[in-house]
Amino acid sequence: MENTIKSLPMVALRGMTIMPEMVVHFDVSRERSVAAIQEAMAEEQKIFLTAQKSIDTEDPKMEDVYEIGTVGTIKQIIKLPKHIVRVLVSGEMRGRLKEIEYTDLYLRANVELLDDSEEILPEDVNTEAMERGLKDMFVSYAAKNGKMSKEAVSQLVEMKGLRKLVDEIAANIPLYYTDQQDILNETDLLKRYEKLAFKLVNEVQIIDIKEEIQRKVKERVDKHQREYILREQLKLIREELGEESTASDAEEFEKELEKDGVVYRRHPVLPYAYELTNYDYLAGLLSFQKGYFYIQDISSMLVGELADPKKGDRVIDVCAAPGGKALHVAEKLRGTGSVEARDLSLYKVGLITENIERSGLTNIHAVQKDATVCDADVKDAADLVIADLPCSGLGVLAKKTDLKYKATAQSTKELAGLQREILKNAASYVRPGGTLIYSTCTINPAENIENVHWFLKEFPEFVLDPIADRLCSTLQNSVEEAGCLQLLPGIHKSDGFFIARFGKK
């Protein structure tokens, strides 16, 4: 029997896949998406929802979206500020995009309805055994994940029918949208079952690996913990006695460097920064192993200096690897508050964790998070957000000469778009009265001051915070527009670097 073809308003989703049996909110702001929602409400409230292959595409065509999407019913719309519409939709069935027939005011598509509710499975397929096996895998995953309510798990376990069970589980587990799309694409029930089962088992294995890494890290951290705590206690005792602890810390650090035979001198820009020479292998230095110092350019240290965290602050660093800026801020918090150092991959999180372990700091932890995906759990939650973002790297060409062969006008334009996407998310994490630091290791205006102007226009609740009084006299002349600092190789004794400090009203 041939499937039905239906003409429906269409919304191309960015960074999100909606599944059958899924009831979910999402926000739209593009004019054509808003118009498609309005058109659907004027008809039968039916809408075709399919994910974009790239979140950066502003004007998606057939080739820019996935062929398989979901036909859903709009349950509610809410108009929000800044021309944003929040939509509550219930996913119902798969649909195959046959043609985008209308693109003027909104997207309208011819969609083949893929209703598999009457699909007949081969006689040799034991659906009861498959259901039990899938439920066991799901329960194991839910127990490991720890983010699903007992009620939700119980409801799914009690569910009957293989097709509904597969779609319900796929709709309720927090997979990345491309993983969900991979399941959605499979129109054959048995193959869809296999893909879901594989992803559940794989997710459990990933969680197990994470737990093992965390266990090993804790064991190593504990070894450094005692020494760190004793040092902090000494600092507090000195403060109670009215002694200048930083001087004592510096003297202790210098003694350790002298033991290692390292030649050092204070940096003129920051009094607690040192330039080190006369060493062969950094990791071989006992002072480095003990976590007395971390290596980064003075420009990167200025991020923490201009951030100026206050005791007890909650801090989120959205692209933290390898962790230098986050560690600097955690150190400035003097054992108070919390720093969440995020990055995209487990590998990068591992790098951050390794550096945290060596430092002995207890108020910082590493988390795997995609900065391009908005984290609603920390909306308006952070006192300080650091967004040191991926960039063209034109400020560090002297150290990474291969970058000059990779930098093109197109690539830098794409990077500026990525930076803006992440800045949108980072802005939402800052509480009223909080601070956002934006930085790059480039000298490209499109990634620096032009992004600042764009941000201030898009987010009028933010203003540039004056930074000159937080800088030494030699850098005060490099301040742009009160709250921005542009460092240039050859002029400043540093990498090419850009920093902007925003305050949220």
Word description of this protein:
- The strands form three sheets. Strands 9, 10, 11, 12, 13, 14, 15, 16 and 17 form a nine-stranded mixed sheet that branches. This protein has a five-stranded mixed barrel with strand order 1-3-4-5-6.
- The protein is globular.
- The protein folds into four domains: about 5-115, LON domain-like (Archaeosine Trna-guanine Transglycosylase, Chain: A, domain 4), CATH 2.30.130; about 125-210, Methane Monooxygenase Hydroxylase, Chain G, domain 1 (Up-down Bundle); about 245-295, Alpha-Beta Plaits (2-Layer Sandwich); about 295-505, Rossmann fold (3-Layer(aba) Sandwich), CATH 3.40.50.150.
- It has helices at about 30-40, 125-145, 150-155, 160-170, 175-185, 190-240, 245-260, 285-290, 300-305, 325-330, 345-360, 410-430, 450-460, 475, and strands spanning about 5-15, 25-30, 45-50, 70-80, 85-100, 105-115, 265, 275, 315, 340-345, 365-370, 380-390, 430-440, 460-465, 480, 485, 495-505.
- It is of the alpha/beta class.
What CATH architecture label of the largest domain applies?
Answer: 3-Layer(aba) Sandwich
Overall structural class, as computed from helix and strand content, comes to alpha/beta
The backbone outline, from C-alpha atoms, is globular
Strand content: 15-25%
End-to-end separation = 60 Å
Rg value: 27 Å
CATH class of the largest domain: Alpha Beta
CATH homologous superfamily grouping of the largest domain: Vaccinia Virus protein VP39
Number of helices: 14
- Low-confidence residue ranges: 397-408
Output mean pLDDT: 85
Tell me about the biggest sheet? 9 strands, mixed
Structural domain count:
4
CATH fold name of the largest domain: Rossmann fold
Bin the helical content.
Answer: 25-40%
Q: Could you give the count of β-strands?
A: 17
